[in-house]
Amino acid sequence: MGDSSASTAVRSGLHLRKGGDEAPLPSALTQSQSVDVVAVLTETTPDEWVDRWRTEVGPDPAGHTILTVDETTRSAAASTSNGPLFGGISVTTTAAPVSPDVVADTLETALARPAPERELFVWVESLAPLSAGESTIPLLKTLRKLRESITVTAVCHTETGPVDTAVADLFDSVAVAEPVSARIDRLRAENPTNFGYLRRHWRDTKRAIDQSTRSYPQARQLHADLGETETTPQSLGVALQALVELGVIELWNDTVGSNRYDLTTYDAELLDAVGESLANAETE
């Protein structure tokens, strides 16, 4: 899985964003002489999408294929092709959930135009109807395969919440914040020892980080500055490792000796949320 920064997808690759993200379309697409666009729309109409493209990107792409998903339709109908629209733009309407065959047909339509050099841009307003139809992973695997021969940029959106690892790992960047409770539940299940040390020592661990003047300290250095504490350098180190797993801080290096922690990456708000969650658990 790639980085978790909020990518604006101006570079090639597969990017996952939070639903409702209003970041503009990548204007760098105008640099391509032969870009084919696939837009999977769940909220926007084809007219609105084309207007947005022309406003934010500019000239019409070489090829434009739109799949509009009617999430209110729950019939057994497959898809209905409305044929070319807007001077050559292909528009297809389908019902949710969206089957892999519909997605495959949409990509096939987009790639049917002969092109010696091609760039593919895919925009998915919501993965929900694709996931419901078990189409998300086939789509992402196809796009990754296509990258072996053409430039592919894809921006997909999902609702806020945890993302299945099998899906997230297929993206180059993921900008969807996982709820704190889900992170803690995962830590408890996957590494109960680290979870236990963090639950017991999170207050001293937070105090050690907050008062540190070092950017890349070892656990023993943080412990030495704590003063009165129930922790040891070893227990503090385990709690710090738990914070790394939760995304509160990052490791600066991971060696056979003492780890150093990169406090320049410290997310104080996230640690506050982690502490609040752990404190609430203590009173339950």
Oligomer: single chain
Counting helices, strands and paired strands, the structural category is: alpha/beta
The secondary-structure element order is: EEHEEEHEHHEHEHHHHEEH
Helical percentage: 25-40%
CA-atom Rg in angstroms: 24 Å
Record the strand order, biggest sheet. Answer: 4-5-3-2-6-7-1-8
Distance between the termini: 35 Å
The biggest sheet, with number of strands, parallel, antiparallel or mixed sense and barrel status, is:
8 strands, mixed
- Specify the number of helices: 10
* Proportion of beta-strand residues: 15-25%
Uncertain parts:
1-10, 73-81, 83-87
Shape: elongated
User: How would you state the average pLDDT, rounded?
Assistant: 84
Count of distinct strands: 10
Question: Would you kindly provide a written description of the structure presented here, covering whatever features stand out?
Answer:
Helix content is 39%, strand content 21%. Helix 1 links the parallel strand 2 and strand 3.
